[in-house]
Amino acid sequence: MPQKEKRKFPRINVNFPIRYKAKRGNFSVKAKSYDLSIGGIRLVSDRLFPLGTNVQLELNILSRVISPIIGAVVWSDLLPYSGKYQMGVEFLQVKLEDKGQIADYINLHALL
């Protein structure tokens, strides 16, 4: 029996750098994005934040910086043989205008 899709929103594959930090942290971490939806992002980084950690993200899409996006780490895995971690971050707070920019980016790339 096929597994039911758990995602609420369609995702696209992406590959752009992002910055993120613990919401209450003072330092930011560079990461790379791998897929994006209107509801969240998968990223790969050298730094792992525990499940449930609230993070602040800065995305640079369509030549525009979108920040701050507040999200929560909802899953994480160690990538074998790389020393890097992949994490799923669910968006919790995104300005309406920024949500529109993300949707435009997804729609543009879904057509390609």
Please explain how this structure is put together.
The chain has one helix and seven strands, in the order βββββββα. With 112 residues, the chain is mainly beta. The protein has a single domain, classed as Thrombin, subunit H, CATH 2.40.10.220. A hairpin with a 6-residue loop joins β2 and β3. The chain starts with 11 loop residues before the first strand and ends with a helix.
Structural class: mainly beta
Helix count? 1
Q: How many discrete structural domains?
A: 1
Estimated helix fraction: 10-25%
Q: What would the principal axes of the Cα set say about the shape?
A: globular
Q: How many whole angstroms does the radius of gyration measure?
A: 14 Å
Percentage beta strand:
over 45%
* Average pLDDT metric: 87
Total beta strands: 7
Could you provide a short overview of the structure?
The protein has a single domain (about 10-110), classed as predicted glycosyltransferase like domains (Thrombin, subunit H). It is about 15% helix and about 50% strand.
Walk me through the topology.
Blueprint: E1 12-13, E2 17-22, E3 29-37, E4 40-45, E5 54-61, E6 64-79, E7 84-93, H1 96-110
List keywords for this structure.
mainly beta; 112 residues; Thrombin, subunit H; six-stranded antiparallel β-barrel
